[in-house]
Design goal:
single chain, about 180 residues, alpha+beta, 8 strands, about 35% strand
């Protein structure tokens, strides 16, 4: 449909649909594409956060297990280094094997026991006339097991089991 203006100098042609908005598939597709792109980005971000949290949990569990092993073995080795080889022995107790370090100070003999009890490395210091009582000792650090042996004179082997069940050995040559 065309029409003429009242002004004879200017003639214009007008389309029938002028002034109305055309509904095109291109605009709809662009909106859906943008929404899909945002949704994909959100899902990828969620997966990254979940994966990162799992990695973080595994790293912290490894650090905790490493801390227990290193601290436990370091504590025992430093304790043993303060004694001579003839002061160290292994005794059987109600809670299993214990490492006994005997020291005489001012005519009195004092015993220091290192042992495993209820998921912890324990330490008990007492006079030699007091019987061993694991419940009277102190919890040093958490572990899953502890074993001692003296493979040769002046050598002490300590085996600590961490929370994952891994055996960690320490062999110390004692001073004479």
């Amino acid at each position: 449909m065309t029409w003429q203006s009242n002004n004879p100098d200017k003639t214009r042609k007008r389309n029938k649909t002028m002034g109305t908005r055309q509904s095109g598939g291109a605009h709809c597709f662009e909106g859906v594409f943008v929404l899909m792109l945002i949704a994909t980005l959100a899902i990828c971000s969620l997966f990254a956060v979940v994966f990162g949290a799992r990695v973080y949990r595994n790293v912290t569990n490894g650090i905790d297990a490493n801390f227990s092993v290193r601290t436990g073995l370091s504590y025992i080795s430093n304790k043993l280094r303060s004694y001579d080889a003839d002061q160290i022995s292994i005794v059987d107790t109600d809670s299993g094997k214990a490492l006994l370090a005997a020291e005489t100070i001012g005519g009195d003999t004092y015993n220091t026991y290192l042992y495993y009890d209820n998921g912890f490395i324990g330490e008990l210091s007492a006079t030699s006339d007091q019987p061993f009582d694991a419940s009277a000792g102190s919890e040093v650090i958490k572990c899953s097991g502890l074993d001692f042996s003296i493979p040769s004179p002046g050598v002490v082997k300590v085996t600590l089991i961490d929370s994952s069940g891994k055996l960690n050995d320490l062999t110390l040559k004692m001073r004479s």
